[in-house]
Amino acid sequence: MVEKHIKHLLYNHDCVIIPDFGGLITRYVPARINPVKHTLVPPSKKIAFNEKLVLNDGLLISTIAYANNSSKEEARQLVVSFVHEVRNRLESEQRFELTDIGVFKYNHEQRLVFEYTEGDNLLEASFGLPEIVVRPIRHEEPAVLRTLIKERQAAEPAPVRKPFKVRLKRAYHVAAGLALTGLVGTALYMLSLQTDYNLSSLNPISLISGDKQVADDNTVTASIPVQHETTLGQAAAADVMEVSEASMVEGTEAWDVTSSTTSGSEGQYAADEFVNEKGEAVEEAAAPAPVTTTVSDKDGRYYIITGGYARMLNAEFSRQEIAEFGHEAKVLEPGKGSRLFKVSVADFATAEEAQAAMNTYRKSFGENIWVYNN
């Protein structure tokens, strides 16, 4: 009887306390989809148990007294008897089932736990809503279309297998084509291994351009006279060289240069000298010495430094940018105890000269430049 009143109270209340035993608490559960059963479950209530809610709030006792038309004392005795029965069943059978609500039992720590049994939907707003079966939609062809497809398949003749001779002839043609392709590829590969043969000569366009290039080369070669060197003896040697150059620009005169034969120490020209119209030797101008842009050793000079870099590549980029403005920029390699490649914009022999030039270079490179003694 008490179980029936507890279930009835759970429909309308969120908490029902069983005096000296615990309280049953309801929780709202929204609608959900079961992907395995393909069902849609309406909203419901889920019940949990809290054994610490033992204080009598009078709800259960008052409901039983009103339903049985009895006094509250008689209703309280019914609840006490019910709790006593539950505890005896738990001690003897280790479980007690509350009909359509859940099961009480002890866990491995001998603590009372409650397992909710999903029976009737206790949510009053979902009363009468069934569980809806939602099956996946499968596209089915209309009956008329299925009939037409079957008739078409029946009308189509079965594929006839070609005779064995026809298939053998086709396989022979395929094998012959593959073999011919392999032979051509092998021949081209063997030709490419020869040092005096170039596969690009098979290109007709390259042949035409090559003939034109050979003709041009012959024309140029024919316009330049060949120099002959004749040895007359070990004691005296006569070098006869005649150079004639065709005039490439209209109005330019041709120069005829003839070297005279001399012996001993008179009039002998060096190999790197030119001869003018009067036969005088003119020394070739010496090539300018290369400009040094990297300083690796100590030289005692004072450099105006614009910045320091951890990598030589970055320092070289900075030096090239400074050199574009007409400055003699240099890169100083790191010395002992340093890892920076320093870039200088100018260098001087004394510190006074470097300090005097600082104001001039600050206008172009800012206030962060400094003097460094290498």
UniProtKB/TrEMBL annotation:
Protein origin, superkingdom: Bacteria
Coiled-coil ranges per UniProt: none
Keywords attached to this entry: Membrane, Transmembrane, Transmembrane helix
Boundaries of every SPOR domain copy: 296-374
Record carries keyword Protein biosynthesis: no
SUPFAM superfamilies: Sporulation related repeat
PROSITE patterns: SPOR
Keyword Manganese among record annotations: no
TM segment ranges: 171-191
One Pfam family cited in the UniProt record for this chain: HU-CCDC81_bac_1
GO molecular function term, any single one: peptidoglycan binding
Official protein name in the record: Sporulation related protein
